[in-house]
UniProtKB/TrEMBL annotation:
Keywords: DNA-binding, Hydrolase, Nuclease. Residues 29-298 form the 5'-3' exonuclease domain. It comes from the Eukaryota. SMART domains: 53EXOc, HhH2. GO terms for biological process: DNA replication, Okazaki fragment processing. This is 5'-3' exonuclease domain-containing protein. Pfam families: 5_3_exonuc, 5_3_exonuc_N. It comes from Ostreococcus sp. 'lucimarinus'. InterPro entries: 5-3_exonucl_a-hlix_arch_N, 5-3_exonuclease, 5-3_exonuclease_C_sf, DNA_polI_H3TH, FEN, HhH2, PIN-like_dom_sf. The keyword Hydrolase applies. GO terms for molecular function: 5'-3' exonuclease activity; 5'-flap endonuclease activity; DNA binding.
């Protein structure tokens, strides 16, 4: 099957997905969970990078570039023929991580107003296309993905987490992989990233579950995670290879070779920063929020099926935004 206009970051490419290894096995349920906001940002900044006059607008003057890209992203995922699919979004406002650390993500610039205005339109289009959209107050999309993916894999599903975010490495497992946006402008729009890929990336030193401790040691500037001063990736890998986890590394800090890393790990400040950073970077896989407890959100509610209204809402949305190629592609995938 040929993807007519697979578009994640604003590009329109031909992409063959029929032969990909991601495609559904006949007897095994396959859940795809989308890190929804990451693709909104990716599309927005992808189009803006092209310069003025390069975006798409409808007859009413509405900017439809991001909607075009997002609709094609959903279609590209539908072409993988998952049995289950959901888009997970962050809730507005502070989360439990902000309560732990007031400076969490405080280094990020404000979201541009035009982008903020687009997000509700994207979310409504996703719903109109018949794809469940999950959001919980006070919780990040990462934790929804972590909880639902864990439940699904425990139930025998194959799980694909669609995101470019390295934070999800910690969730990789025998039945869970990532789908990263492809860096190539040709071919499949997503690149599978598996446990074996993770191991190779980290010199076969650590396993995915140790990536939590790795991030806690080195920090993460994208989320303003402090980490431990003086501990970089090379030192973190060496510590985890030798000691296995942060607790053991701290217990053996006096034996660490590098002076700066040793002093930081031996200090009260360093130990506290490591503990805090670990709590911040760990994706929750057991949320007790009522909306995520059975039977309020059975996995069957995420099953790919035609919209209950027969596609009427989606048809109106596609017509309003004049997304003709996306509409034809979606109709073929969702309604046939």
């Amino acid at each position: 099957m040929t993807a007519v206009a697979s578009s994640i970051d604003g590009r329109a490419d031909a992409a063959s997905t029929s032969a990909t290894s991601i495609a559904r096995d006949a007897d095994e349920p396959h859940l795809i969970l989308v890190d929804g906001l990451s693709f909104v940002f990716r599309a927005y900044y992808g189009w803006n990078a092209r310069g003025s006059g390069e975006g798409l607008t409808n007859a009413a003057g509405e900017d439809t570039s991001v909607l075009y890209s997002y609709a094609h992203t959903i279609c590209s995922l539908l072409e993988l023929k998952p049995t289950h699919l959901a888009v997970c979004m962050d809730a507005k406002g502070k989360t439990f991580r902000h309560e732990m650390f007031v400076e969490y993500k405080a280094n990020r610039p404000p979201t541009p107003e035009p982008l903020l205005e687009l997000i509700p339109k994207v979310e409504q289009l996703v719903r109109d296309m018949g794809v469940p959209l999950l959001r919980l107050s006070g919780v990040e999309a990462d934790d929804i993905i972590g909880t639902v993916s864990r439940r699904a894999s425990d139930a025998g599903f194959r799980v694909s987490i669609c995101s470019p975010d390295k934070d999800f490495y910690q969730l990789l497992g025998p039945k869970t992989k990532m789908l990263k946006p492809s860096k190539s402008s040709k071919g499949d729009p997503f690149d599978p990233f598996t446990v074996d890929d993770f191991r190779a990336m980290h010199n076969n030193v650590i396993e995915p579950e140790q990536f939590i401790d790795f991030l806690a040691l080195v920090g993460d500037s994208a989320d303003n995670i402090p980490g431990v001063e003086g501990v970089g990736p090379k030192t973190a890998l060496a510590l985890l290879e030798q000691y296995g986890d942060i607790e053991s590394a701290l217990a053996n800090a006096a034996n660490v070779k590098g002076k700066r890393a040793r002093e930081s790990l031996l200090s009260e400040k360093g130990a506290a920063s490591a503990a805090l950073s670990r709590r911040l970077v760990e994706i929750r896989q057991n949320l007790t929020v009522p909306s995520l407890n059975e039977p309020l959100l059975p996995l069957d509610s995420l099953r790919v099926r035609p919209p209950a209204d027969g596609g009427a809402a989606a048809t109106r949305a596609f017509e309003r935004y004049e997304l003709d190629t996306a509409f034809e592609r979606w109709r073929r995938l969702a309604l046939s």
